[in-house]
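Students often ask why inverse folding is considered easier than folding. One informal answer: many sequences map to the same fold, so there is more than one right answer. In these notes we will look at a single instance of the problem. The structure comes first.
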């Protein structure tokens, strides 16, 4: 079985995001970038399935500028076999990403696509669902446990009421949640080996897809600064504050 894992290059989650002065977007100048944390979990799960004998190859795919190859190298250093970079200068929306992945799936014919449930830069939580619809494959989102059984996969997913268990016939699309696993760190030997692993570069034209965005960003604003807290001396003061300032009561 071949597993395809899409990975995205995002601002490192430890970095405090700054809005550009003209409010046209987020300032990316001299900002540390990293693999989307949910995608790291997807890579780890694919590698565990391979190590358990359920897969022969793990292929990573990223869509973005040439710098996205660094993100692919990170996954290759974790243990993935090869990568595919769909180069574009366009800031892709979930629909465009899903269309590109749909075309890559047609080329690679994997039996399983595992991707993070969302990216921490836009928090859309749409790409996996759109991809499954385009492929007409069964899907399981927010996976907290994945088990392969022959030509089927059993997925435990987190829902508002608790846990739900689904059994999907392969091929299928799975999106990962935080509690699925703990991603490994790449060892130095694997980092060196990753430099020799192949990354194929494609364009949207090679795949025959249109990545043009359908939405226009009007303005990006930073959230207002939080007001400082106050220490209250009694429950009566708290009630008065709730009435006069918070408007709760």
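Output (designed amino acids):
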């Amino acid at each position: 079985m071949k597993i395809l894992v899409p990975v995205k290059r995002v601002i490192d989650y430890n970095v405090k995001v700054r809005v550009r002065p003209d409010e046209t977007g987020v300032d990316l100048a001299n900002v540390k970038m990293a693999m989307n944390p949910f995608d790291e979990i997807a890579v780890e799960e694919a590698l565990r399935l391979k190590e358990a004998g359920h897969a022969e190859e793990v292929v990573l795919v990223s869509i973005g500028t040439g710098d996205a190859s660094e993100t692919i190298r990170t996954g290759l250093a974790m243990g993935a076999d090869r990568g595919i970079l769909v180069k574009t200068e366009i800031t892709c929306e979930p629909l465009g990403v899903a269309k590109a992945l749909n075309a890559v799936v047609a080329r690679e014919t994997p039996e399983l696509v595992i991707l993070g449930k969302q990216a921490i830069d836009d928090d859309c939580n749409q790409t996996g669902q759109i991809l499954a619809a385009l492929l007409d494959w069964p899907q399981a989102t927010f996976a907290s446990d994945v088990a392969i059984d022959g030509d089927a996969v059993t997925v435990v997913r987190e829902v508002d009421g608790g846990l739900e268990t689904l059994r999907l016939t392969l091929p299928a699309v799975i999106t990962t949640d935080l509690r699925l696993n703990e991603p490994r760190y790449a060892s130095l030997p694997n980092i060196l080996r990753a430099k020799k692993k192949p990354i194929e570069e494609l364009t949207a034209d090679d795949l025959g897809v249109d990545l043009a965005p359908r939405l226009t960003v009007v303005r990006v604003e930073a959230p207002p600064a939080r007001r400082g807290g106050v220490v209250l001396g009694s429950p009566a003061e708290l009630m008065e504050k709730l009435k006069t300032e918070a408007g709760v009561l």
